[in-house]
Amino acid sequence: MPKHQLEADSIRYQVGNRQLLTDVYLHCETGEIVGLLGRNGCGKTTLLQIIFGTKATENKHIRIDNQVYPEPYKHQTLMAYLPQQDFLPKNIRLTKIIDLYLPAPKKREVVKQDIRIQKHLHKRADELSKGERRYLELLLLLQLDVKFLLLDEPFSGVEPLYVEHIEMLLQSHLSTKGFIITDHDYRSVLRVSRRIILLADGYCRPITHEAELLRWGYVPAGKFS
Ligand SMILES: Nc1ncnc2c1ncn2[C@@H]1O[C@H](COP(=O)(O)OP(=O)(O)OP(=O)(O)O)[C@@H](O)[C@H]1O
């Protein structure tokens, strides 16, 4: 399988007088899960939206395989983004949602046959729990033929057993995809990621040891001591 490279370079973003992102650099390649951690409001969602191309900013260079893409979301095979908020249409039954979202019958079947989804196929999306919806959203995104997935809080509202299953699912797609994930369930992010990046004070800092998260004030004293 070919390896692909995603590079997000020179990203700057200002909110009012606050420089939220200051010359951020982040990269990811096929086969890699990059965990993006950071405190509330530090700019993780903003950064993912800028990379995806749906948030405009003063400066950025998004390159995939050395080609610059100002708006990656406009290219079907480059990347997909799991937003923090639900994106499934509420009043439509799951079978229909899956058919609408995935044109290929084989891919539809993978989702419909999923043991956790099977029993809910006749329900509308608003009849699922938050964690069940999150899980289905992820399954749909994983079936897309994209090189990179940006996942904003994929574990949010998801029970521990599902979290473990999601971690395995991500690992099983590494031969064709690269992932950037952010979530406050930092233990799961640490477990599943090959590299950890901490976004703090507008910069992305590589974390090579968990104790550095303590030093940067991301986790409370007593952890990793
Ligand atoms: N369009 C905007 N107008 C005003 N403030 C904004 C705008 N976009 C982002 N912000 C501010 O920028 C900061 C970063 O927001 P963002 O959602 O990216 O943070 P986050 O790191 O994802 O936070 P969380 O962990 O809570 O999800 C916040 O303080 C937010 O209020």
Automatic annotation (TrEMBL):
<dbReference type="InterPro" id="IPR051782">
    <property type="entry name" value="ABC_Transporter_VariousFunc"/>
</dbReference>
<feature type="domain" description="ABC transporter">
    <location>
        <begin position="6"/>
        <end position="225"/>
    </location>
</feature>
<dbReference type="InterPro" id="IPR003439">
    <property type="entry name" value="ABC_transporter-like_ATP-bd"/>
</dbReference>
<dbReference type="Pfam" id="PF00005">
    <property type="entry name" value="ABC_tran"/>
</dbReference>
<dbReference type="InterPro" id="IPR003593">
    <property type="entry name" value="AAA+_ATPase"/>
</dbReference>
<protein>
    <submittedName>
        <fullName>ATP-binding cassette domain-containing protein</fullName>
    </submittedName>
</protein>
<dbReference type="InterPro" id="IPR027417">
    <property type="entry name" value="P-loop_NTPase"/>
</dbReference>
<dbReference type="GO" id="GO:0005524">
    <property type="term" value="F:ATP binding"/>
</dbReference>
<keyword id="KW-0547">Nucleotide-binding</keyword>
<keyword id="KW-0067">ATP-binding</keyword>
<keyword id="KW-0813">Transport</keyword>
